[in-house]
Amino acid sequence: MKQYFKYQGGKLPLPVFFPDATRAVVRTVDSQDIKATGTPGVLVNTYHLYLDLGRKILERFGGIREFMGWKGAVISDSGGFQVMSLAKRAGKRGGVTDKGVKFKLSGKKTLELTPETSIEFQMALKPDMAVVLDDFTLPNSTRSQAEESVERTILWAERSKKKFEEICDQQGLTEGKRPYLLAVVQGGENLKLRRLCAERLAEIGFDGYGYGGWPILDNGEFNYDVARTIARFTPKESFLYGLGIGKPEEVVNLVDMGFQIFDCVLPTRDARHKRLYVFDSASINQIDVRADNFYEFFSPQKQIHYVDDSPISLACDCLLCKNYSRAYLNHLFRIEELTALRLATIHNLRFYSILMEKLRPTGSDPVGV
RNA sequence: GCUGGGGUGGUGGAGUGGUCAAACACACGAGUCUGUAAAACUCGCGGCGCAAGCCUACCCAGGUUCGAACCCUGGCCCCAGCA
């Protein structure tokens, strides 16, 4: 198990949660806001930034970090999730072939992403960790569909690593200077396939392995069996990464299984959808993340908060909780003022950063961002 | 006081003889959201019931009609214009 996550500004104690700054911004907040929440890093997305940004811009700025004025860590995602959310939607195979994925854009345009182009672009972003393009195993895939996505994921991982090493050699990025490279384990709910995928990826060799695909079962419960399988059949000294995971209690449980890196849209999207996370505790010190129901949701727009002069949470020290009342936030949401979204997002980011602080071994260095 | 328009659910506002427990919107309530097509979406919203369904409703009181929120008579109230 890794002791820390090395990035351009130093070392981060683990575990860490990175919110999704898909298009080089966490919606409604800026990089300084993110920093102020104690958030150590963000995840940016290859698919979106590939469409938004040209190479010239990245070259001029020397990477996405400088472009967005962010001093923390950065992981770049490969576009693998978009293979599912955009290319394979409605149960189709989309434009997925062994070569890569073709996305249909508006009009006649298409975007082709291959394992190689994804890595190339990610290297231009200059992240601290890059992710290989993977073929998302759709939920409820047939056995043969799942096998196909696993085979392709392994094939693509191999090609990604080759390209990655090529670029590292070209740029003189020796061991210790190059970013981490993460492979993604697919295979759906089939544990044998997950094991096969994990082992084959491990043979190729990566810095870390991700829990890919869709982690939620049909009954709405989190699929911890897959998490255990991935943890068990990957090298002990590597990172375990829960891609797009998850709810606070899911993060806690996965940390207990050895997972150390997480990213998810939940805290930021929930904030925009008026769902704030509140520790069920009277102070930050008293938070017990191993307790049942250690947090609850707060809905700021509700009528009962119209005249409520208390803070959103007693167990929080974010910009919102330190300075404003429930009534004021209620008002800001009612009049649809953008600041409501910003404050809510900042609050939920702080919730997750406190959560991760509580999950770190006592005595580990605070995140010095 | 005269003239004209109007009184429908928490609100605004459709409906103008049967298919109305009442469009649509807002408000309110309950949910969903997991490598961001998402400041989005779903559901409920007269009462009772798990439900099929039953009951009470369109200012008030009468009337016409097989049948009225819709037509007629009277009353009360509101709004606009003129005095």
TrEMBL record:
Superkingdom per UniProt: Bacteria
Keyword Metal-binding part of the UniProt annotation: yes
GO molecular function terms noted in the UniProt entry: metal ion binding
UniProt cross-references to InterPro entries, sorted A to Z: TGT-like_sf, tRNA_ribo_trans-like
SUPFAM superfamilies registered for this protein in UniProt: tRNA-guanine transglycosylase
Keyword field: Metal-binding
A GO BP annotation: tRNA modification
Span of domain tRNA-guanine(15) transglycosylase-like: 7-360
Classification via PANTHER family: PTHR43468, TRNA-GUANOSINE(34) QUEUINE TRANSGLYCOSYLASE
Protein name: tRNA-guanine(15) transglycosylase-like domain-containing protein
Organism of derivation: Candidatus Beckwithbacteria bacterium GW2011_GWB1_47_15
Organism ancestry: Bacteria, Candidatus Beckwithiibacteriota
